[in-house]
Each structure stands twice: as structure tokens, then as C-alpha cells.
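Aggregate trends can hide what the representation actually does to any particular protein. The sequence in question and its C-alpha cells are set out directly beneath this paragraph.
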Amino acid sequence: MPRRLVLRRIGLGLAGLAGLVLLLVAVAALLFFVRLERSVPRLEGQVRAPGLSAPVTIARDANGVPTITGRTRADVAYATGYLHAQERYFQMDQLRRVAAGELGELFGAAGLAFDRVTRPHLFRARARYLVAHMPAADRAMLDAYVAGVNRGLDDLKAAPFEYALLGQRPRKWAPEDSLLVVYAMYLDLQHDRPELELFRARAAARVGPAMADLLYPIGGELDSPLDGSAAPLPALPTSLKPLPAQTLGPMPADRVVKGSNDWAIGGRLTASGAAMVANDMHLRTAVPNTWYRARLVVPGEGMDLIGVTLPGVFTLVVGSNRHIAWGFTDAYIDAHDAVIVEPVNGRSGWYETPAGPRRISARPEKLCAAGICTDLIVRGTIWGPITARLPDGREVADRWLAHDANAIRLGPMLALERAHSIAEALPIAHALALPDENIVIGDSAGHVAWTIAGQIPRRFGWDGRDAVSWADGTKGWAGYLRPDEVPTIVDPAKARVWTANARVVGGAALSRLGDGGYDDGSRAQEIGRRLAARDRFDERDMMAIQLDTTALRMRFWQDVLLQTLARRHAQRFVAMVAPVRGWNGRAEADSVGYRLIRTFRAAVLAQAYAAYIGAPDDDAPKGYNLSSAEQALRMLLRARPKGLVPPGYASWDAFLDANLDRVAGAVDAEAGGRLGRFTWGGWMHADVHHPLSGAIPFLGLLTDPRDRGMPGDGGVVRAQYLGAGASERLVVSPGHEAQGLFHMPGGQSGAPLAPYYLAGHRDWIEGRPTPLLPGKAKWTLTLTP
């Protein structure tokens, strides 16, 4: 056969194969599109819903925000579950699996690394225990919600599209799963082990206890506490403890202090005479968003709630009930303790306790992925699971509030929904059992208050800052603080309260709360300054504060960078002087000066801690607390003590010069050496994505909003991080919800073909004020018994 004919036949064969491949791709795309269309939430009509006491109406506006109206709170809980399942079931599934340590069953081997960390906390077993011992009224409400979730899942024509991509089927919702969602928030807000104690132990082992105190102070000069107190700053050591002769790698930089802003002003500062509350909670931002907006109405019970819910749980998290409004920020009080496990001499597997030696428990657990299971032995003590090891090799058990038998209570959240005043709300706040939060409350009579919501351990024998042994009974926990012992501030003289994850109080009150890694106070300080600047506010004024990008703490670093640049005469450094000196004090997307200063600061902090305490090993936390680092480096760079020069550098000038070189390297690597392109927005992106879009090609074209450079940063009121930031912005005066404002990234629905998919996201990006209350009903669905 002639060569030309052979090649032609081969070409025709390849063309046919390519055509077949294209046909198969087209068919697969069509089937996937059909699957997407079948998983769109039901918007209109009637749905049979056995278990309801009366019909419930669900009226959605153009943004998909529902007003749920029912005869009883349990009926509304049922309908909330129905909507959560219809719009967010895959998200709910992830949350329960995160807490239970079961991600591998959904995501395969990629989830097992997380499961190995979270499974030792045994949260599924703890959730089952809590459900079994729950008060009857709470259990009835939970059962109504769970029934609604499963009815909503069944009513989808097809399961959410993620299950098809993963080759999985959704598992029904169980009562314990709702508690696992709350445990997932414990893990998100309080970490999975006692980080600060482990940080300090590592530093003490490397550079001595005095240097550990400096590197991890409890407060700092940027603090803005409500009581006006000052936390004592640590003394500068004269020299470092001799370092072990070993080569140490870099310490990872920029561990994000997840947090929030929350403040309230009294009635004398508003036109209506009612208090006003502003809240923006800083969490991972993704599609779909953490929160689900809703208005919950029970006319016969006088209930009208507006705010956000957490898919997986039926209560309102933050918002207003027309009598009070409330918001949360992570309190960062000390909820963990690292308990040194003392082995019993000559008895392997035993440890010392105040009641005598005990055997370390060993509970077998199975971690599964793709149908293959491996064994994990969870080793535990009377204080908690063994989760880490100190630099000297001793094991550490984790004593954590989340492990307690009353770590979650639904009743107080339901009671908060019905409170009519500060006087009613504060005792409820002290009865809440959740990850410890600052709660700020304002009522329609104009009163404002702050306190800690959640349980607070009562320590004895030490202050909780370091890992210690509890074996002899002289140290430990003796229950929790009584409500009258919990720090509380009501109607301060200036009618303003605010929190932003920094310490709120000092003195004896701070000693009772402890330090779980407070933020450095720069956001709190700016909020306090903005609130003090005026004597009258409306809702738009409050949102303007939420969007403020003033970067107070960077003025210090601007000065240090200018001093460092003054020593360097190469043209690339000379060119940096003008944008750094001309920086306007804000974290703006188009700012070259801010990015230079911010990059320099990040390098200095990271390299200082790498030099002092080295790279983490497998049993040490992989990061450090940037809030602590801010205060430590301010003290060191002002004094520049010769005995504390970071190891590996000849002088403080040499240390700073090396970090300036790192900034220049970043300009080369990220902007091709063109300084004008080295803008803050060139690095700081909204970075809002679907959790699978990074792993599945082209999925992001369907699921993800267009990315863009963003203003804001950690340390400014408009907190922004890569893939994290203000998960909502709420401003509301109770009784005046029609003037309330709201933002939320990612939109209401997880279904890409829902008609309101990503609705509201652009308003969040651009900071455009939008109403809190849902708009005119566009779709109405009725659930009937």
C-alpha cells in the first residue's frame, strides 16, 4: 500500500478518534448540565412535609433570601432545614465530616491528612452523647430541623453536582450531624490543639524562658481595651540562651488570626434612640458562603428574626429580633491547656494522675478513603487526647472546652432569639455553650453591652500560659466561672462598646479569661478612634467604618523601612523611597507603597522567628502568632540590643538589610522587576472559589466569581486575606430593620444554575450598601403537612 494512502488512513482514523472523543466530551457535558439543572432548589409550588403542624410559606426575593413564616418555631426550623439542604447540602456534609474526621470518605486520600488531626477529638461520639442527653424541648426542635433537611434533600431531583464529580452519594442527615457542624466551628475558631502553649514551649527550649515571654507577650502597645487597662509588657532579656548546634529552616509566616469586628453604640448616638450594632465576622470566603441569610417569622409567638444562619443548624447566629440585635467576634480567651503527661517509671503505657497511676487509653478508629480503611489508635488521658510532644520529648494531652459533656447547648441560642432587652440577654449569653465569643448586644431602648458568651475554665495553680503537669493535683481546672465572675460591660459612659479579637479587659478580669492568642489591637484601636470622632451615627456611617482601610500599625514599619532604605544606594532601592514615603496610610489595592511596607514587615517577622525558634517539626505548630510577633519586633527594633541580634546575622542592620533584599527579590519574582506593577491588589485578591474548583479543571468557570485585587488586610478594619475576610457585614438598629444594611460574599445558593447564584457578591466586593431585609417576594413555596 502506498505510503501516502497509509498516512491518509491513519489521519482519517485519528480524526475519527478525535471526533469520538469530542462527542463523548459533549455528551458528558450535556449530562453534567442536566445534572446541574436537576439539582436546582425548588422555588415555587407546594411540597408535602409530614411532621409540620401547619403550612409554612417560603417567600424568596430576587437574591434568593427567604422569609420563612410558620405557626411554630419548630415548623420554621423544619423549613430552615429544608432550605439548607436544597441550597447547601454539600457544604453541610463537609462541615460534619471536618469535625468527625471523615473527610477521606468524601474526598479520598486527600482528606486523610485532616482526618488524622481531627479524629482524635472523637467529636462524632461526643455529638451522639449530647443528642442522647439533650433536653426534650431542644431535641424536638432539632428533630424538626433534621426532618426538614432530609425532606429537602429528597425533594431535589438530583443530588448536588459535587457528588457526581466525586463519584459519591449523599448520606442522610442525623441529629448528631448538626452538633458536628458546631464542633467544626470549634475547630475553625479555636484550633485543634493548645497552640500558644506549644509555641512558648518551643521558644523556651530554643532561646530561654525570658525570650519566650518577649516573643509571646499577652498584650501590646496597640491594645484598645474597653476598660482602658494596660497589659504589662515583657522585659528585654540581655542575651539569648545558647542555641543547639543544628541547622534550622524557615518558620512559615503569616498565620492568619481569624477574627471579626463587632461594636455597638447607645441610643443617644442615633436618631431613633435605639442602639445600633455592626458586625463583620472574618472567616474563609468561598462559594457558597459560610452563612445562609434568612428572615424567620412566627406571628403567633411574636417572633420576627432577621440575620444569618449556619447551614446544619437551625438557630439565628447573629442579627436582630426587633428588640435586641447581637453580633459575635472570636474572643481568643484561653480555652485550651497543654497538660504534660508524666510516665510511670517502669510501667510502659501508664501515666501519673492525682488519683494515682492510670493506663493511657487506646481507642481504635478507622480512617477510610476510596473504600480502603486504615487503623488509627487514639491515645487519651483523663484530661483529653494526646495530641503533641514538647521539644524535650514529653507528650502533651489537650484539655479543651470542646471535649466537655456540655460543650454545645441549643436552648440558650433559642432563648436569645426571644430576648427583649439587655437585661434579659446577658444571663442567656452567659449560659451559651459554644466556641467562646465576644458578644456585643444593643436593644431598642438604647442600651449596649459586651460580655463573653461561652464557658470559661476556672484554673488553679498557674495562669494557663505554659504546658505544665497536672499529675500532683496542684494545677488544673475546677469547673467554670460563674456568670457573676464573667467580665461584663453595660452602658459605658461614652455609650460605645467594640471588639476586634484583641484583649477587651485587663487586670484580674484578663487573668480569669487568659490568653488564647489575642490579635494585636490595631483593628480595635481604629474602630475606637472612628467611634470617638462623632456623636451621631446612622447605618451608612457604621458600614463606612467596616470598610475602613486605615493601616495604623504599618506607620511603624514605614519608618523602619525608610531607615533601612537610607543605607542602600543601588537604584532599585532608591526607587522604593518615593512610594514608601508617599504612602497615604491605607491598605488600598493600587498602592505600591503599602505592598512594599507590608512585604518588608512580613519578611522581618518571619525571619526573626525562624532565627530565634527555628522550623517546626512534626509535633510543633506550623506557624506563629503574628500578633505576638508585632509587639516583640517593635520592642526589639527600637532597642536593638546587641545580645539579641537574630542568630545568623552580624547586626540588626545586617538583619534588616537581608530582609530588604527579600523585598527586592519579591519585586523581581512577582512584578518582573517593575516597581509600578508591585501593587497591593496584585497580591491581595478576593480569592473566592468553590472548594473543588482548584482540583477539577474548568469547574471554576462555572462556579467561581471573577477574581480581583482587593483593598484591606489583616490589621485593618476592612479585614481581607487570600480566600478569607468579612464573611458578612451587618448593621442594624433593633426595631428599625428597614434601615439595616448587609453584605455577603458568594451568595445564597450552592447551585450554579439557581437564578440568584452569586447575587450580592459584587456588592460585597465593591462595598456598596444593600438592605438587610429581604426585598419583594419573587418566588413562593409552601410546605404543607
